[in-house]
Batch of 2 targets.
Target 1
Amino acid sequence: MTDKNMQDKPFKKSPFSMQMDLSKFELASDSEKAQQDVMRESTTFFRDGIRRLSKNYLAMGSLIVLALIVLLITIAPVFVPYGYEEVIRVDGKRDRSLINLKPFTWSEKEQEAIDQGEKLFPHIMGTDDLGRDYFIRVLYGTRVSLIVGLFASLIVLIIGLLYGSISGYLGGKVDLFMMRIVDMIYSLPDMLIVILLAVVLEDALKERIAGTILAKVGVNMITLFIVFGLLYWVSMARLVRGQILSIKENEFVLAAKASGASTGRIIKKHILPNCISVIFISTALQVPSAIFTESYLSFVQLGVKVPMPSLGSLANAARNGLQSFPFKLVFPSVMIGLIVLSFNLLGDGLRDSFDPKLRK
Amino acid sequence: MLRYFLKRLGLALVTVGLIMTITFWAMNAVPGGPFEREKAPEPRVKAVLEARYGLDKPIGQQFVMYVGNVLRGDFGISLKTGREITTTILTGFKTSAKLGAMAIVVAVFFGLIFGMTAALFRNRFPDRLIIFLTTFFVSVPSFVLATLLLLVFSITLGWIPVWSATDRHMLLPVIALALYPMSYITRLTKSNLLDILGQDYIRTARAKGVAGWLIVVKHALRNALIPVITYLGPLTAYILTGSLVVETVFTLGGLGREFITAILQRDYPLIMGTTIFLSVIMIGMTLLSDLIYKIVDPRITFS
Amino acid sequence: MNMQGLHEKKEGVILSVRNLSTSFFTGSGEVKAVNGVSFDLEAGKVLGIVGESGSGKSVTAYSILQILTHPGRIVGGQVLYKGVDLAKFSQRQMREIRGEQISIIFQDPMTSLNPTYTVGNQIGEAIRLHTSRRGSEVRDRIVELLTLVGINEPQKRADQYPHELSGGMRQRIMIAMAIACEPDILIADEPTTALDVTIQAQILELIQKLQDELGLAVIMITHDLGIIADMCDDIIVMYAGSIAERGSADDIFYNPHHEYTKGLLHSIPTMEKTDDMLIPIAGSPVDMLAMPAGCPFAPRCPSAMKVCMTDMPEELEIGDGHFASCWMNVKDMVMAEAGEQHE
């Protein structure tokens, strides 16, 4: 439809209408119509989300970075011949010049050994003030921080999910009471309580777990998980409850109820799939928060038990001799930054791709 | 309005009570009690302790005494130094409060400005730069950030002196503390502003012929501020706990350093006192921000 | 501009839209929300734009005022207001037009008013922007306007917040704000859709009254042919961003020449019609991201022909000022000519 046809050149007098092929005016068949009705290929919610996510370069990059880090911390310890708590000895003897080596340098004794034709594994990140290989310590620190982050998020997820769905589903007075408790815990200054509990539980638990496998993990880690289980689930519980309340009123739940489905079945089959994306995103974003908390506790020396390293405790230890050995701060800091950044970007990407509210 | 205020106040008081209970319980959970350490305190100190805390009395009575003391502002005496904890806290808090207040102002001010800039230049260079930087800043723990700042600006570049006893520079500590909440406020402001700029009443304002900047200032900013106000409570909490470590890194003799030292030395009365003191401030700020929120938003105030 | 001037009998085309195209550049591709739309609005007349959601009627209105939201923008055509092309205006220049020469009211009066300011404040903003009135003059004008749009206790209402008023009253506030500076043109974008049926009639009546008294030209946008039957002089039927048919109200109602218009007319419930005569239009609107090659209505059209699938029909003048873009009209003509030749 163009302007000139409309005004200056009425179609009536157009000679080209004479040349039209009359067969074109035959009625179109239904299949022709259907063919014409081009719709975008219909996709499922999940597939569409994945498609969006794969287009989000930052999120995909983060995923790759995280995958590489996980690969590194699982595989590299096999190749590095040093232990995270092992004070390196050359020919069974301690070497004073082995402490605080810069990256890719050797101690005097090591140099001698190499000159004699021995093959030694390089200190990729140098050594620490006790003469331990820093690279392997950073790797183990990353392991600890990641495991703490994932495990704590898992605890938060499980408790929050159970509490929130029960509260949201039951509703009424029970919901009111359960949410009052959540409000109360929510208004507690979490970090202070974490520190307080960490101080107390460390002393209280130390003797009780002595000799068990838990002792190896360290009291502080158990404390950390207890604290997460006690305090940090409330946001998740609120989120889950909110999701359930908003979906509960939907007609498809009513339909399920009318057809005689049990409560558990309604939660599992109808409610959870609808809020799963929001919950998943929130869990992904919980990981960096847990890593932060762990590093904070490590800073006030309530973190993992020595000689087990965590990224937080490594960064904290690096504050001594910062002037001479700044790299000891840089390596764990970069690692924390990389992990947290990746989780944040991935979480953002997941939210953009999967949150029903943000999709159009 | 008054009813709402009383309700919030009630919740705040319950929370404070809860914290006192937790601290009291926590200290009693320590094997051998909080006052029996490897090295027994001096007899003089011990006598004072027993009088203050009624250690010979049953636990319920101890709790009542403890609460009574706290309500009078008496947190007892330090196990290690024997000084009045209330004095220690108040002295230390002067530095912490100054640092914290500056950090809050910086975080809110720059957070709002950057947030507005990012929203107005959506998907263009300033937005991308701001979002990149803020994403970076929320990915580094405050003490690491503090140490890195120290490393770069004081040690490597030598711009700002470190560890001078007389002239304590607040610049780096304030930056170290403010970056994380500033980034958070930036992102919060941006997303709120974008949300609000998509509202129908913004379209109405445009249709009226209101200029672009005036739309932001008059019609959007006010509404975008509301979530920032609700963030003031958590912000205070973050700044206060953050200052604990930042003060230590920069060796500013604030409450934070006292607290960390108390933790390392297991000086329980000081830990308890500081925890309660800081909690009350945080809860007070949350209460305050809730009230401001109600005042700013007429939809809630008048209905 | 004073009231005197407005009451003068104005004539002729005041707004002429020529080949207007507006697109939204989304992540999934370009959406041609308005695709080559042309029409004229005469001073003091009421023009109805009808179409289902997504047909581009609101986007046309927003394009005229350049209040499109990101990522939409005008990609071609002219918006001639008193002979001047508004499409070439900068945002700064447009501010002098908006609210002063051309005003608009929206569908949902609840969300269209800022919840944090009193309604008086919001009306006053428009007055202060475009007139030299200040202080108590503004206040007087607000009260005058509120009275004009039929709000009782105007003094009290002016100091209330939008959430304290009913839906109908809010829409009256919106109208008061729109006519505050005596514009030439009022665009009403589905002004009654969000309101109760009883209120709908009152609002339409008010718009008609004001149009009469102030000599406004009105563009009435709606998805409901029924409610504007009595008030419009001319009607445009839009489908998928293009004009399907345009003409006088009588042309559209009694002599429709586009299958979509016919479909719309069949789907209006009236007192006379019995249930079985109410025929809905089959299918659903086209996906604007994947527009078919031919007539966008073809997949839903009961009389679609082969040519409809492959070529877009051009606009054909049916009668004086009555245009339709439908291959059926071409077919009829060709058949008639062919018949003539046979004889």
Target 2
Amino acid sequence: MSKAKQPPVAHAGSDAPATSATPVMFDYAPALESRSVVEIASSYGLYIDGRFVDPVDGGSFKTINPATEEVLAEVSEASAADVDLAVSAARRAFRQSWGVMPGRERAKYLFRIARILQERSRELAVLESLDNGKPIRESRDVDVPLVAAWFFYYAGWADKLEYAGLGDHPRPLGVAAQVIPWNFPLLMLAWKVAPALAAGNTVVLKPAETTPLTALWFAEICQQAELPAGVVNIITGAGETGRALVAHPDVDKVAFTGSTDVGRQIARTVAGSSKRVTLELGGKAANIVFDDAPIDEAVEGIVNGIFFNQGHVCCAGSRLLVQESVAEEVLARLKRRMSTLRVGDPLDKNTDVGAINSAEQLARIRELSDVGEAEGAGRWAPPCELPSVGFWFPPTLFTGVSQAHRIAREEIFGPVLSVLTFRTPAEAVEKANNTPYGLSAGVWTDKGSRILWMANQLRAGVVWANTFNKFDPASPFGGYKESGYGREGGRHGLEAYIR
Amino acid sequence: MTENKSSARRTVTKAAQALASTTGAASEQRLPIRKTYKLYIGGAFPRSESGRSYVVHDAKGGFLANAALASRKDARDAVVAARKAFGGWSGRTAYNRGQVLYRVAEVMEGRRGQFAEEVQASEGVSRRGAYAAVDASVDRLVWYAGWADKIAQVVGGANAVAGPYFNFSSPEPTGVVAVVAPQESSLLGLVSVLAPVIVAGNTAVLVTSHQRPLPAIAFSEVLATSDVPGGVVNVLTGSAAEIGPWLASHMDVNAIDLSGVDDAGLATSLEEAAAGNLKRVVRPSADGAADWTADPTIDRITAFLETKTVWHPVGI
């Protein structure tokens, strides 16, 4: 694995406010997390009915490390025939084991899985960073701990469903078809699988084609937990596999996290059926900074909001709305802070911004950024030397962005921030809500009444006030408008899996 | 009335008796004033901008009225009115919305006779059956009215997150909801689908029963006189097959209730069109025949609610 180059000593230069000194930069020694904790086989089958099996048609594809472009493993591509086998296995398990098992027994299996996830957390974190490109600091401190927490939380619901306020006789739906994205591979699996199993459903899950490995590890964890065969089935593949799964006639429930365009296709596919659907789709969140906000905290929140996970976050704070009176100061401090972000090797514990997940995604980020420049917005990125192999994009911001610009309307899904200004709270609300999306929003101000007023006005499913990008299994997450429907997390998350 | 009065007055003159019998005869023959059944959009009662109407029959096939045949333009006007009303209606306090809905029930109670006649003529049920439907409709409004300031406590709440954060979830209305009202149950069905939409702060564009649209217009008159702001409920008489696709594909409609779509093929195509902007969809009941006399649940309220979760750090 090639070592990413250190970002050069960065200087805020002429953008730094005159009053603040140029930051003292230290030359970090690399602090690499060892990848020896993970042994990756050269190829993987599909996990159907409790066993790893070869695909019917024998198709396969490769998954690579986006930081090095090195092939990590060859993974099976499930065809419609494999989907059929997986759904049949899930149906059998629903009828014979999981669907008829007392909730307290289901709970014990889920607690067991949560514990194994904790035991193998280091291995999972390294694997996630290898396959996804996210910094080990995030996979270790955010993704994997939340994965375990999600199972621990929903485990406790399995024998308490009648207290969830979802009717007197809550019953599972049956077989759930779940399709998840590449930005938080294992975490999205947890969001989907934990509530489904707690409620007594069985699942067929398809991870994204660029990040299939942690889902296959999870399959092995199910084996370690001695989860009955067929309760969890993992089929790898790309869009075609997902389409076959969602359209399968014996599926009772479809849960999808991904792009709004694919969400629309899924909503069309299930029309006229009795399948239940939840969709967690795109976003273009406004992160709103008022003039009375603690600026340094707000700057940290802005950075976390858009550069966390390389900006591959549906709820990323990709539109910064800053009050005109403090815009200059916020921008100066933001640029200074961006200059200290370390871009590079995901396995280096010092890395803040890792690799872009795929060549395809990198091309989209580049294209939209070029459009931003062509439409007249001012582009800025700190001096930042990027590794020569792998997929990389520097933390970037655009100033002078108007609401009509494509970079203010379309989801870039990368480390690119569009900066707009406002004068009054009403204008901030108007601009924040001026989007077909409605997933999340951020508000930074010291005034309590204004926080609550803003929270009321913003048409978004999650509002972070004086914080950003916080997640918890007890906290419902999901969007308004074209960001999808249904909630994941909390008591609300059970509703998607109960009739 | 006149006959009763004249029989009670035994001392009146012959002339007066003659006058009384004359007026009595005249009232028996009096030509009734018919009502022009129009649309209800933005708090006003316009005709269809298309100038079209269609004949509405009673259950025996007799002529009842010419109802306005709503067009695509009427549907769009209704969406504009509903969107305009959304901010104000959703911004009312829940207590106030509950009182307004209760007021609708009060006004309707005072017009039970009229509604019973409308329902009897439209549905061909007995007088007793018609009164039962009206009474159930009034009672349903009262039931839903009470939910206005309780639903947030039932479906929202504090979330115990693993960190120093205040975190709570509360329900908010989805926005503009298109509703296709049930075809058979012209009043009780209509109230049963409309009340849960508006009680939580949504605004509605409602397509009435095609064959039995008249009670819905009489109901609109109740809405217009019950402090329900104009535009909160907009009522279109006509065909769901014609107007439905425009509402299902309208980009400023947030949700659609297909409860009144009897044709499975049409329901599927409307659900497909609704995917364009990811509308929340309530499908028609799977077995085809919903029982509107059954006690409702909160499912119809929650179908048109969003959950908003707010985080704030806790600290000194």
